Amino acid sequence: MPALSIPSVKSQVSPEEWALRCDLAACYRLVALYGWSDLVFTHISAKLPGADHHFLINPYGLMFDEITASSLVKVDMQCNKLMDSSFPVNPAGFVIHSAVHEAREDAQCVLHTHTRAGVAVSAQAGGVLPISQQSTFVLGSLAYHTYEGVAFRPDEKPRLQADLGEAKFLMLRNHGLLTVGKSIADAFLNMYVFESTCQIQVSAQAGGALTEVDPRILAGTAQAMKVQTDGIGAAFVWPAMLRKLERSGQGNYVS
What we know:
Layout: H1 15-33, E1 44-47, E2 54-57, E3 73-76, H2 91-103, E4 109-113, H3 116-122, H4 133-139, E5 142-145, H5 157-164, E6 169-172, E7 176-181, H6 184-205, H7 215-218, H8 221-228, H9 238-248
Parallel strand pairs: 5-6
Antiparallel strand pairs: 1-2, 1-4, 2-3, 4-7, 6-7
Helix pairs in contact: 1-9, 2-5, 3-6, 4-6
């Protein structure tokens, strides 16, 4: 099967849901474009507007650069499909993402990766070190969750929720990175900073003695990010990211 042919669901959903589907599909394509995907084995989910317990997640088995707005699967908190789909949902992905959506009303989007740099830092006893400007943004809202094996057991959810708390960045020990955002754009920008932090750390550790950022600087990172994004968070950069997808030939996600 050289290409997938998935019928459009645009006429079956609200304009708000269609817009969310398009942004989420774009996020999957961007994750693939930046090299953060792990074949089909990680997930990005988005909570549906006006539905506290319904969200969109990737069809398990599709590469991230294949995902379209119409292929995304709509599920409830029990992982029941709410629209017909020939694709399954990964149980491990569902456990992690449903746990976060259940505990965090502010988390419209949850993004999880297994990148080489992210897993490498997650395996280090010291975790994220304050050695870069990028790390200062992460350290202001970072939590850790101990590895319990492949996350398909529902009994892990309360521990994951307790460890996450109100943080925007969660390091899953020996596993990878997770970010939450009030929008898909926010979750993506958070992951961009988190991933950059880990790549810089691994590179720096290969070069000799490290210089740490003065702890007093960490206290001002929230204001610094606000200034950098003109006070509107990731919405400042998201249109540029969509244009980047178009230039890369990945603009066919809106289908």
